[in-house]
Amino acid sequence: MVRDARDAAGARVGLDIGATKILGVVVAADGTVLAQARETTVAGPDGVLASAGAVLERLAAAAGGSLPAVIGVGVPGIVDRAAGAVKHAVNLGLDGDWFPLAARIGARAGDLRQPGAGAARVTLENDLNAATWGAHVLSGADDLAYVSLGTGLAAGFVLDGVLRRGAHGAAGEIGHVPVDPAGELCSCGQKGCLELVASGSAVTAAWPSPDLPAAEALFAAASAGDPAAVAARDRFVHGVADAVRMLGLTVDPAVIILGGGVANLGAPLRDAVAATLRTQAATSPFLASLDLASRLRLVPQGMPVGALGAAMIGDAG
Fold first, then answer.
1. Own/partner pairs for 28-31, CB < 8 Å, 24+ apart?
2. What is the topology classification, in CATH, of domain 141-298?
3. Among candidate residues 154, 161, 99, the one with its CA nearest the CA of residue 136
4. Closest by Cα among 259, 198, 262, 210 to 234
5. CA-CA distance, 222 to 244, in Å (whole number)?
6. DSSP result, 103-143
7. Where are the domains of the chain?
8. Taking 80 as the threshold, does the pLDDT of residue 3 lie above it?
9. Are the C-beta atoms of 104 and 110 separated by less than 8 Å?
């Protein structure tokens, strides 16, 4: 908690609903995080609602016993923002017809508001878009690409201060750009997709670790000189650099922010990707002129960018 959540005017709530955990925050109107709460996600409609409800209860306690009126929710899957519904959130067990998640969370939140305070207003957003908006709030950049290195690989965009969702909600699905026609079959049905190389799942497959996060174990082993680890790390880093180069050549954002679970590696990841970008540009005056390496940023470690973005997503339009 940064300061007392009970004293913040214009406070908002953000929920980042993932397959393993739900992270909630109370933030001030300027995006300052005031309180956080976390619960393990229980799959299925009832389980997700129970888990989210437990987070809301803890946030209400931190806010003096009553939730703020504005709640944003980031959730994986296909989101109908107008209807407040989600489908194809397979990892959450919400893989049937449209599920009215916003209304259900709103009803639960209503029980946690002071009598006469009115109903909570719940906005539903795709989780990547929410995290992208959170990166925008944190960085202050109005022209950025956010690269999510999580289980998969995807990018989000804020261009001229506007969140770009895409005509069909598919903007930034760079993980499913095929880069190796002879590569493995991807879950999307194509072969050789970029996320088979540049994602948390790719790192786990290449370097499983029972004790540490796979990316941390891989980079540590590579730093210790293990030849197999060096090869696996370099393959992953080159894949991430290819993703950054793709974004630079298609969208040309002023800032490219690395986030997601793998980005918890911090500076070693950013520095390795930047070095690879410089190597790629060494033989191309055109690439060198773009100086993609200098545009790289990291989400600050420990910052709940998805939940923060969900709380502030109403400002994205």
1. 31/137, 31/138, 31/308, 31/311, 31/312
2. Nucleotidyltransferase; domain 5 (3.30.420)
3. 161
4. 198
5. 22
6. HHHHHHHHTTS-TTS---EEEEEEHHHHHHHHHHHHH--SS
7. 5-130+304-316, 141-298
8. no
9. no
Q: For residue 288, report the phi and psi dihedrals to the nearest 5 degrees.
A: -60, -35
Residues in the chain: 317
Confidence at 118, pLDDT banded by 50, 70, 90: confident
CB 12, CB 68: distance < 8 Å? yes
> Where in the chain does DSSP place strands (E)?
12-17, 21-27, 33-40, 70-75, 78-80, 85-87, 121-126, 144-149, 153-159, 162-164, 255-259, 296-298
Residue indicated by tokens 């306690």: 61
Q: pLDDT at residue 58 above 80?
A: yes
Structure pTM? 0.93
- Residue 31, token pair as written in the block: 């995006």
Long-range contacts of 81-85 (CB under 8 A, 24+ apart): 81/123, 81/124, 81/125, 84/122, 84/123, 84/124, 85/124
Task: Tally the C-alpha atoms within 13 A of residue 219's C-alpha that lie toward its C-beta.
Answer: 19
The one-character DSSP state at 42 is: P
Radius of gyration of the chain (CA): 20
User: Tokens for 148?
Assistant: 């999510």
Q: Residue 151 to residues 220, 251, 262, 298: CA-CA distances in angstroms?
A: 20, 24, 9, 18
Q: What is the pLDDT of residues 67-94, one digit of tens each?
A: 999 999 999 989 999 999 999 898 899 9
Assigned CATH for 5-130+304-316 = 3.30.420.40
Helix (H, G, I), strand (E, B) or coil at 70: strand
